[in-house]
Amino acid sequence: MCLQVELSPVEMCARIWEMKVKPTCGPYWHSLDPTSRDEDPLLRRFQCDFSVTPMQDNDPIWGGQESTWQFVTAKKSNGKQSGQYIRINSWPQHRVVRLADGRWRLDNYYASYTTCPDQEENTPPYVRGKKLEFCPRCNPEPAEKKEG
Fold first, then answer.
1. pTM, whole model, 2 decimals?
2. What percent of the chain has pLDDT over 90?
3. 20 to 30 A from 26, CA-CA: which of 33, 66, 91, 147?
4. Taking a C-beta distance cutoff of 8 angstroms, is the pair 139, 10 a contact?
């Protein structure tokens, strides 16, 4: 199976992302991450207006602040692109990785974001039933095909 190797804006916005804070972020921030206590992860949505929003009301890390994302291009000394990256706010950029199972991961020293599986049977219980609404910018095609 051939996997897409570059994340598109539509793909970025069409997913539910699990956020995990790494211990390297410090004990305070790591303790706020439910996965540090073997609980369900925090869920994020990357919007097509380049904002980031939480998907849970009781998110202990989210303080109502504005959060944004953008694609960042890194180049090697020879001028060739060295990979794809996402920057969230002014934090260190996250490297974009395609996992063997087809999911996406954004990863840096402090945190990672991983997409939930596409197949319903592989979807974790804490994500089931959550549906994403697409805006016309992300999904310009109408839901119903026009008759010609």
1. 0.80
2. 47
3. 66
4. yes
